[in-house]
Amino acid sequence: MLKTIIVDDEPKMREGLKKIIYWETYGFTICGDAENGKQALILIERERPSLVITDIRMPVLSGLDLMMEVSGRFDCQFVVISGYGEFDYAQRALKYGAIDYILKPIDEEQLIEALQRTRRRIAFANDSLPLELPQNVVQNSEAVEEVIQYIREHYKEPLMIKEIADKVFLNPIYLGQLFKKQTGSYFNNFVHQIRVEEAKKKLKGSSNKIADIALSVGYSDSDYFVQQFKKLVGCTPSHYREK
Q1: Number of structural domains in the chain
Q2: 152 is in which domain, residue-wise?
Q3: Quick one: 159 and 209 in the same domain?
Q4: Which of 18, 23, 188, 195 could form a disulfide with 217, with the two C-beta atoms 3.0–4.6 Å apart?
Q5: Is 31 helix (H, G, I), strand (E, B) or coil?
Q6: In this structure, are 19 and 90 located in the same domain?
Q7: 175 in helix, strand or coil?
Q8: What is the pLDDT of residues 69-86, one digit of tens each?
Q9: How far is CA 220 from CA 55, 61, 156, 189, in A?
Q10: Tens of pLDDT, residues 181-220
Q11: Alpha carbon distance 221, 228 (integer Å)
Q12: Could you give the C-alpha distances from 86 to 68, 80, 109, 166, 226, in angstroms and in order?
């Protein structure tokens, strides 16, 4: 059975998803649920699920931000659900590697089709994933250096390891392992480090608003920026500027 986590800030929605189908019939089992992306990240770290079904708009950490945090760290697939029909949400979710984008109210048949696609993608990934990191140290080093350079040049943009893996012709899970082994940092943690370093320069050299600085270094949500800044620097951007 493939472990599955449900993430939605509406309790009725979470309970409804648990009961909408017989999950075991399709090879899945619900191993937990969360009401926001931050709780979900803790749950993912503990349970290591194969699939996460998440709402897009949630407090603390959105579904798209959750996908970015998980990318390159854990080998799990995403199905995104939302009550909002705007095409750009679907576009971004699919660009970030989601199996499917399903609008509320959930259609049972569409959910089942998404589960079947999830099984096929997992089977394909398992067949194509190297059993261990190859010993070509030069090639490995060059690939990681290329990724680091790409991050430094594009940190203002949404960055997903799946997209970058295509550019260096590597499996994204394999690249995540390689990146962690060579740099000592997960891909997304490294992205946060680069963004926060750039933000520190802007905080010192300008009087721009915190929200504007957040946007200029790649954070569309200023609260999320403050959260990451505090985690890495030990204080809020405002306090850092005062110092």
Answers
A1: 3
A2: 137-184
A3: no
A4: 195
A5: strand
A6: yes
A7: helix
A8: 887 778 889 999 887 666
A9: 18, 12, 10, 17
A10: 889 988 888 999 999 999 999 988 788 899 899 999 998 8
A11: 11
A12: 20, 13, 22, 27, 27
**233 shares its domain with 165:** no
Q: What is the DSSP string of 70-110?
A: HTTTS--EEEEEES---HHHHHHHHHTT-SEEEESSPPHHH
Over residues 108-133, the mean pLDDT reads 78
CA distance 162 to 172: 5
**What confidence tens digit (pLDDT) does each residue in 217-242 have?**
998 888 888 888 998 999 999 898 88
Note the pLDDT of residue 223: 84
Instruction: Measure the CA dihedral 192/194/196/197, to 10°.
Output: 160
The C-alpha angle 81, 18, 11, rounded to 5 degrees, equals 70
Rounded-to-integer distance, Cα 83 and Cα 57, Å: 9
Residues 195 and 174 in one domain: no
Structure tokens at 170: 């590597």
Note whether 160 and 166 are within 8 A (CB): no
Q: Are residues 142 and 200 located together in one domain of the fold?
A: no
- Mean pLDDT computed over every residue of the chain: 86
The percentage of residues in the chain with a pLDDT greater than 90, rounded to a whole number, is 38
